[in-house]
Amino acid sequence: MKSNASLGKNAEETGHYLGASVRWDPLTENEKYESLLVEEFSSVTVENEMKMDAAHPAPEEYNFQKADEIVQAAEQNNMKVRGHPLVWGEALPEWVYETVVDEQSARKVLKDHVQTMAGHYRERVNEWDVVNEAWNDDGSYRETIWLEHIGPEYIPLAFEWAREAAPEAKLYYNDYGNEMTNEKTEAMFAALKRWKDEGVPIDGIGMQTHIDAADPRFSKEKMQKNLRRWGAEGFETAVTELDVKLQNLDASREERLEKQADIYADVTSACMEEPSCKGLTVWGVGDTESWVTEQEAASGEPLLFDSSWKAKPAYERIKRTFIFNQML
């Protein structure tokens, strides 16, 4: 069964969204990028332009121009907007390391940043990744300037500050590797559940879901187990940075693309079948703009559209998964 509707429309008909992360440069310079984004997706995540080094380049200076233009483009096309991220230990401007010297200065800088960003987009961003990647793979807290000077409490504080500035937005914790059960997931679950039980406004859990097609650890069943566990504790969930890289898979290109399609379908199906999961975001529109292509290997080909902007087998598999779930 085929559908002429876009992926985003197919997703909406199941009560979900299907989004893509967006960069300012190709959005404003590449007509094919813009048209595919608008035609195929129903949600936008601002990939880089809301990170602290881009949006807050000096202590008393904010630069919203590029992020504003992405948000405006989404609004003009009736697309949902996800902000990313308010708090992260990376992508920090140099002035932060010069200014933050103790707990008082850390709290001041972080609160100002969180509330200025969330406040600026108060009525315009539907969901925020409030805190990004706060745990190491072994379950310990990741060493960041915020942990160093505030301690783990910077995490619930960030959510409380964000809620004050954007009371209607959904507030998410976002991380990688949490689509599977491991030491990181266990530590994350214990802390975030405790804080939520104490009244901290943590609405949702973002599962980035960056998958290596050669990694045998991923399975739909493991992912569903984690989605279900978070949902049972009252958290929304979402797949927030989905891509499936191929460069480590020893197979023909045709076989690799079919494996990629299988994984995309499994992730989509896992989300569709768990009530807590509200939608999926693919981490980029096409392979040319992917972080995998830029940082790891051109042969990674992790996204739904190739370097010529042609749909890959994963595109049709996701569409079929949405259509199947409409019929249930």
UniProtKB/TrEMBL annotation:
Q: Which UniProt keywords apply?
A: Carbohydrate metabolism, Glycosidase, Hydrolase, Polysaccharide degradation, Signal, Xylan degradation
* Listed EC numbers: 3.2.1.8
Which EC class does it fall in?
A: hydrolase
What sequence ranges are listed for the domain GH10?
1-321
Q: Which reaction does it catalyse?
A: Endohydrolysis of (1->4)-beta-D-xylosidic linkages in xylans
Q: Which InterPro entries does the entry mention?
A: GH, GH10, GH10_dom
Q: Which GO terms describe its molecular function?
A: endo-1,4-beta-xylanase activity
Q: Which domain of life is it from?
A: Bacteria
Could you tell me the Gene Ontology terms of the biological process aspect for this record?
A: xylan catabolic process
Gene3D superfamilies for the chain: Glycosidases
What's the family? Belongs to the glycosyl hydrolase 10 (cellulase F) family.
Q: Any idea what this protein is called?
A: Beta-xylanase
